[in-house]
Amino acid sequence: MTPYYLHHGDALRVLADMPDASVDALITDPPYSSGGMVRGDRNQPTEQKYRGWSQNADGSSRAPTATYAGFTGDTRDQRGYAYWFALWAGECLRIAKPGAHFITFTDWRQLPTTTDAVQAAGWVWRGVAVWDKGIGRPMRGRFRNHVEYLIWATNGPVAEEDCYLDSVFRVAPPRPNTRQHLTEKPVRLLRHLMPLVPQGGVVLDPFMGSGTTGVAALAEGRRFVGVEMTQHYYDVATRRIATAAGEYVPKGDQGDLYAEDEPA
User: Fold this and answer.
1) Residue 166 burial class via C-beta count within 10 angstroms: exposed 0-12, middle 13-18, buried 19 and up
2) Contact 122, 128 (CB under 8 A)
3) Do 1 and 257 touch, CB atoms closer than 8 A?
4) Which of the residue ranges 143-157, 165-179, 197-211 would you say has the lowest mean pLDDT?
5) What 3-state class would DSSP assign to 105?
6) How many CB atoms lie within 10 A of CB 167?
7) Phi, psi angle pair for 87, to nearest 5°
8) What's this model's pTM, rounded to 2 decimal places?
9) DSSP assignment string, 179-211
10) CA-to-CA distance for 218 and 98, rounded, in angstroms?
11) CATH hierarchy code of domain 4-245
């Protein structure tokens, strides 16, 4: 049985065709529609909105993110973002098994809206964790912006695994020479979350980008379902996840991820 299955298309359409109660966790990094204080800022192309300079953990200069391909779906206003989020997150609730975990990234601007949308979709909000990136531009008279947030929720009562996770993760972002996405998260950060998922369980990411969640899931002995709309990043994710799986699986020949394992 293949350990992963990838879909190229709009998340809402793809999720509608997925079977009920078929995944053990949802871990994703959707387009926040953030990156600015006003709508004009948010409406900029992602290649410009998320460009900028910062430093690597060793203090060396970091390449501008404008050198990476852009992505769509990141220019909604606040209400549009909240309604859209509740739509796809509600579809994910149907797909999730009872007790499944839901983890989604967000920034400080969208933190209140995202927690509301998670609950509007029917998930039980459980808390917030912090990703401390360790880098960020100093801002005169303000707090340094070097953290993002992980919203944690479950499908009803918690399905408890024998694990004890921290609420602050200090992990540096990907380096420029390995980074493949404008807003890419580090594999090590995603691997820290996998103990919430039972061994061999299925992790769903409806906005997989360059495939980091899938790489982390396979590395930790979990299976993976990913969805990506942007062709460029779907191709990147396919290569990365196939490499992580140790094999190349041609399109249209991926088997049935939801089938039970055959007895030994």
Assistant:
1) exposed
2) no
3) yes
4) 165-179
5) strand
6) 10
7) -65, -55
8) 0.80
9) --STTPPPHHHHHHHGGGS-TT-EEEETT-TTT
10) 22
11) 3.40.50.150
